[in-house]
Amino acid sequence: MKLFSGGCLCGQVQISARGEPLRIGICHCTKCRQESGSAFTFYGVWPARQFQSTGETSELNGQHFCPRCGSRLFALNDLEAEFKLGILSEAPTPLVPSYELWVKRREPWLRPIEGAAQYQENRE
User: Fold this and answer.
1) 89 pLDDT exceeds 90?
2) Considering the chain, what percentage of its residues have pLDDT values greater than 70?
3) Would you state the pLDDT for residue 37?
4) Alpha-carbon distance 86 to 32, whole Å?
5) What is the mean pLDDT of the chain?
6) Domain segments of the chain as ranges
7) Which residues, including other chains, have CB under 8 Å from residue 12's CB and lie 6 or more apart?
8) Which residues contact 108 (CB under 8 A, 6 or more apart)?
9) Which of 71, 10, 80 is closest to 37 using CA atoms?
């Protein structure tokens, strides 16, 4: 079973997810732009039971981050774990987005991901 792992910038928090993700996406919404400090967020979603983290995190609005270095890391509920794929140790990753959210906010110089579903706002 494939293992995806990584951590925060300072190494205090480590994450891992086993198996294939439920979905991979890119989001261009205002919240994701502000949270990442970039034009979009690249993330994956796994069943919560396949996700593990070690190290102390702080939480704001459901998003966990490292209190030492500030790296944005993951969101977790009883069913799913979503984490930023930029924190994975393997780069580039073999993971390809199957959809893009909030494309109405996508920067005009970014092109749509070929083959990915395009949503003006959230998934329908």
Assistant:
1) yes
2) 100
3) 86
4) 13
5) 94
6) 3-118
7) 55, 56, 66, 68, 69
8) none
9) 71
Residues whose CB is less than 8 angstroms from the CB of residue 92 and which lie 6 or more positions away in sequence, other chains included = none
pLDDT digits (tens, 9 = 90+) for 25-53: 999 999 989 888 899 999 999 999 999 99
Token representation of residue 33? 């732009």
The first and second tokens of residue 14, run together, are: 């480590």
Q: How long a stretch of residues is the chain?
A: 124
How far CA 51 is from CA of 2, 25, 61, in Å, comes to 12, 17, 20
Task: Tell me if the pTM is above 0.85.
Answer: yes
Compute the CA torsion angle 89, 93, 95, 97 (nearest 10 deg).
Answer: 100
pLDDT number for residue 123: 86
- The CATH class that applies to domain 3-118 reads alpha beta
Tokens 């993700």 — which residue? 21
Give whole-number Cα distances, 20 to 12, 23, 35, 45, 55, in Å. 25, 9, 25, 9, 24
